[in-house]
């Protein structure tokens, strides 16, 4: 561990661990009941009409839900300093921990694919900071990056 992260871990314990360690295993999240904090340290990508209102609108994908779930997991695995924390295949939901480069701050990311028909699906991605009041736009940028990488693998349909 770098010395800066070690010093930060004296105050913020989860910063002293590698990968997804130091944080509790995330339980399944009920996406119908996401409650976002008043602080600006989260970002949500979801289909139009989703509640709470998303920061980014995800399109309908004309692909089977299982395939979309596999692709979003590939995207997560390709991201720097991003580690699996929990997976709930029966819900098509997975959780990740992303660590900042210098201070080793952990952020939590939940992805869930929703079946909309036999051959189409939608996606919800919720990224949030463990520590701090502001994330300086990191969670929103992460969603932009992940969705762009997903779209390179599977362009979304034009349906909304």
Largest sheet: 6 strands, mixed
Anisotropy-based shape: globular
Output the helix-strand order.
HEEHEEEEH
Strand adjacency order, main sheet: 2-1-6-5-4-3
Could you tell me the strand content as a percent range? 25-35%
Averaged pLDDT: 91
What's the SSE blueprint?
Elements: H1 3-9, E1 42-46, E2 56-57, H2 65-77, E3 82-88, E4 93-99, E5 106-117, E6 120-129, H3 138-153
Parallel strand pairs: 1-2
Antiparallel strand pairs: 1-6, 3-4, 4-5, 5-6
Structure notes:
The protein is an alpha+beta fold and 160 residues long. The chain has a single domain, classed as TATA-Binding Protein. The protein contains 3 helices and 6 strands, in the order H-E-E-H-E-E-E-E-H. The chain has helices spanning 3-9, 65-77, 138-153, and strands spanning 42-46, 56-57, 82-88, 93-99, 106-117, 120-129. It has a 6-stranded mixed beta sheet with strand order 2-1-6-5-4-3, covered by helices on one side. Helix 2 packs across helix 3 (138-153).
Quick description:
By secondary structure, this protein is an alpha+beta fold.
């Amino acid at each position: 561990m770098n010395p800066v992260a070690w010093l930060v871990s004296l105050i913020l314990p989860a910063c002293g661990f590698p990968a997804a360690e130091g944080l509790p295993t995330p339980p399944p999240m009920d996406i119908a009941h996401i409650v976002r904090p008043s602080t600006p340290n989260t970002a949500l990508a979801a289909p139009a009409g989703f509640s709470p209102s998303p920061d980014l609108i995800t399109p309908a994908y004309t692909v089977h839900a299982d395939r979309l779930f596999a692709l979003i997991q590939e995207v997560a695995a390709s991201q720097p300093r991003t580690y699996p924390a929990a997976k709930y295949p029966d819900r098509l939901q997975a959780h990740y921990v992303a660590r900042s480069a210098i201070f080793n701050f952990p952020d939590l990311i939940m992805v869930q694919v929703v079946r909309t028909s036999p051959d189409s699906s939608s996606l919800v991605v919720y990224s949030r900071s463990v520590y701090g009041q502001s994330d300086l736009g990191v969670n929103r940028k992460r969603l932009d990056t992940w969705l762009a990488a997903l779209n390179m693998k599977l362009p979304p349909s034009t349906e909304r």
